[in-house]
């Protein structure tokens, strides 16, 4: 009988598995609902037996809590990059992007303001106060990884917004797309700088014994990819491959999970060629799991397939259970699918649908 960590890794390596793992993320209101049911100190990941624990990359753009690990960031006057000012209070991330908080129902979404949006010279980018990860003490990783492994759980490092997203957060999506289309040197410098810093961190995570490195950049819209294959191949694929290579250098056995919301199907060949092991997620409102699995299931594994736009909030408990069984049957006994909700579960998701998902996984044979 495999422990939780071994079971998950074997499933992702398509080498068979003992039980279908459970995984999801709750929004604050649903987490409050869980605590009302099970106690103020209850941990839903522990309660539902999730086989992994997350360590957040200090360079992850949304990781406001770990900015202190990278010295000197709190002393920067970020307001000087926003001469137009703000209408509401903002919070600056590690990179200097300003975030206006979202609603209580959707706290993980913010309105972003971009410090490089109006830059018109390469020199401005070169003189920007970039984070210095090489002076950051990453020794804490070893103890955190060991503590999770000692519980027979897998370690997932959340290092998403790896290249494209962090870059456009800084520059703005419109301006960066224009730079890329015009082959402007500012795009090359920005993407190269972000990539080099991601490579350094990726190698540190791998050397610490992390099981799964969660890279990613949203490159999908609801119905298609965000850019052409040619543009992706020119600007992003080689840089992603470089980050993956750095991680594999630190630990050849590390699994690379790549996150993109929306329809990433057109760019899957490029992602596979870059070296990903897992696509996270397969969003059923945008991608057809059956066809994607038939074409690519012998090369990579998958996460998701339980929709959070339609099925989890608006389906019945039985429909949730049926979809779990259908998708696991499709993947087969070797695995290759961590069947789970595709994104954070929002307030409108009925609690009985969450319980139905968990039961369907635990009862799957």
How would you sum up this structure, described in words?
With 365 residues, the chain is an alpha/beta fold. It has one domain: Alpha-Beta Barrel (TIM Barrel). Helices cover 40% and strands 13% of the residues. The protein contains 15 helices and 10 strands. Strands 1-5-6-7-8-9-10 form a 7-stranded parallel beta sheet. Strands 2-3-4 form a 3-stranded antiparallel beta sheet, with no helix packed on it. Helix 6 crosses helix 7 and helix 14 packs parallel to helix 15. It starts with a helix and ends with a helix. The mean pLDDT is 96.
Condensed summary:
This protein has 365 residues and is α/β, with parallel strands linked by helices. It is built from 15 helices and ten strands.
In terms of topology, how is this protein built?
Layout: H1 4-12, H2 28-38, H3 44-47, E1 52-56, E2 90-92, E3 98-101, E4 110-113, H4 122-126, H5 140-149, E5 154-158, H6 164-171, H7 173-181, H8 185-207, E6 212-216, H9 229-235, H10 237-250, E7 255-259, H11 268-274, E8 278-282, H12 289-296, E9 301-306, H13 311-314, H14 317-331, E10 337-341, H15 351-363
Parallel strand pairs: 1-5, 5-6, 6-7, 7-8, 8-9, 9-10
Antiparallel strand pairs: 2-3, 3-4
Helix pairs in contact: 6-7, 8-10, 10-11, 14-15
